[in-house]
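Quick start: what a row looks like.
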Amino acid sequence: MPAPAGELLPALPAGHSAHISARSDAEAVGLWLAEYRASPQTRRAYRREAERLLLWLAEQGLALGEVRRDHLDAFEAFLADPRPRERWVGPPRPRHADDWRPFRGPLAPASRRQSLVILQGMFAWLAEAGWVAHNPFRLMRDKRRRLDNRQGGIERYLERPLWAWFWSWLGRPVGEGASPRQHYEWQRRRLVFGFAYLLAPRIGEMSAARMGDFHRREGRWWWRVTGKGDKTATIPVPPDMVTLLTAWRRTLGLAAEPLPDDATPVLRSLDGRRGLGDNRLYRVIREAFGEAAEALEAEQGEEGRPWAMRLRAATPHWLRHTALTHQAQAGVELRYLAATARHSRLDTTARYLHAEDEAWHRQQSAHRLATGADEGSNQPV
């Protein structure tokens, strides 16, 4: 198992002047992470990437201040294939467990890019703090192409026909003789996916949702959510979500409508009381995608295989992308879409607009090979 961050790391070199009170790379990184104390989810994500880098540097016998441009390429290659596998890759385990590992598997290109984006920001902060003499990311000539995480449109979502099939599959009733637990899980699964599709939450926002967060005001239902950066927003709740929530509350033996002071969790474990944590919710969603892929292949054979592959690749965050993309395609105005997504920048939300792609494809389709009378002609055009 890799050493915990903070071990095997060199202390601050003698005579080095810094503007932060840190005695090691791990402490310096800890101070950077403390800047994100108001956004626990962001801090967890940043800590994961920083820890991976620190552990890798410890293996190389390097300190943060010794990282050169070529080390970044080596680290990116390591993210794509962490070896030896038994030392770096393993199933989810508590951080203090002996068999904890930093990776679940090799990182996909988008995940590697995100990791480098985060670490670029970390090095910029450490350079400003005087902990490192320079930011090696600034030497990357193709930095804008590789590290601008806002470039390109959203592609990780379920297209409308696939979502329509998937939601229909989720609605298939459990068979006769099903146990109470199966009925419970069926109802919970429909709520999870309906919640994700209708309100576009992040997975942590779903697991943190409380019954009282759903409230009625002047005859309309709203959802109060605290998201990234500890920012609170109030999102309109569509009628379909109210229907799902009502059915779920009846499954739990509760009144149809929650009270404003109801602090009990919306999504619950099998005992019907304890909340569903992020990790368990992640598995519920991934398991459903996997089961649906098998059902699709069984029903449609080779014809359905591309869609089945898409379902197997899908993650919980795809549901957020799917929700926002479908809302954009349905004509929801950009300002309302941004409010639902709780994006601080409109250009982030604009990535969900595929109108230009569709227009481009429509016009490009007019460019065709010669047809009709032209095909038999030997004369140049």
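That is the whole record. The beta strands are 214-217, 220-226, 232-236. The CA atoms of residues 18 and 131 lie 5 Å apart.
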